[in-house]
Amino acid sequence: AVSGGSDSMALMHLIAHWNGSLQSDARANLHVVTVDHGLRPESAGEADFVVREAAALGLTADKLRWDGPHPKTGVPAAARAARYRLMAEVCRQRRAVLVTAHTADDQAETMVMALARGAGVDGLSAMQPRTQLNGMIILRPLLEISRARLRATLLQSGADWVDDPTNQDTAYERVRVRKVLSLLEGEGVGRSALARSSRRLSRARAALAHAADALARDAVVHEGCGFARVLREPFLQAPDEIQLRCLLATAGAYGGGMAQSLSGAEALLDWMQSGAGRARTFAGCRIVRRSAEFVVGRECERVDETPVRLE
Fold this sequence. Notes:
The strands form 3 sheets. Strands 6-7-10-9-8 form a 5-stranded antiparallel β-sheet. A 3-stranded mixed β-sheet has the order 3-5-4. The chain has a two-stranded parallel sheet with strand order 1-2. Helix 4 crosses helix 7 (173-185) and helix 4 packs across helix 8 (191-219). 49% of the residues lie in helices and 15% in strands. It contains 11 helices and 10 strands.
């Protein structure tokens, strides 16, 4: 994924150089995607710049465009969703993984924004080196590399990039956080330290996920007709954090992809532990209390009426 900015241009040059250093039978099939969001008059030319630079490295490229109405608020989030949706389609067609140029700077900024929202371990561990989104695998090989080092690499090789003026617009949260981080550097709270903390939190996140998977195997029974039974005794004996993760995973499996909030899940867990009340709803699911178990299934009004043939 290449936007034309310094980070992604460095990624493209680094991967092209790495791939060219391999024996021909070991080389990856590389392809570049760039997205014209149509938010600025210059964006089409910037996408063309990426295509030309990719061709100079011997790489093929697709220029994608975000068409249709654009929102007046929440533009960065909407643009990100559109960008990944478009790139996911290319990845499906090519049976490819997506490689992005997120850096240690991005990691630190993401961590601070998560902190402002009161995030837990998962949010504070920020971006992972390998994740899945929209059915595609995303790889982030530069998470421990600073933007300054990537720009130095481009300058050393004589390569160019384009600067997006919105990266200086304080109307956007990430830009404001970036400026705050510059101030915090003077107090010893640097980007590298934050990225290091994020990496260490990632280890804790993996350990917690492992424990939650073990609890799910012991306490969650998935019925073939479309609901789950959460066995009360083994579930409630686990630590709260493990219960919470198991609950989020189970609700995610039956809620039809509805967004989940951590605070909502915490309130649901409080209800499950309290022993009062027959049923609750959460993220597209209805959870019913029984004497020895909780039943988790899709909310009735969210069930698709289209018949599904069961073998």
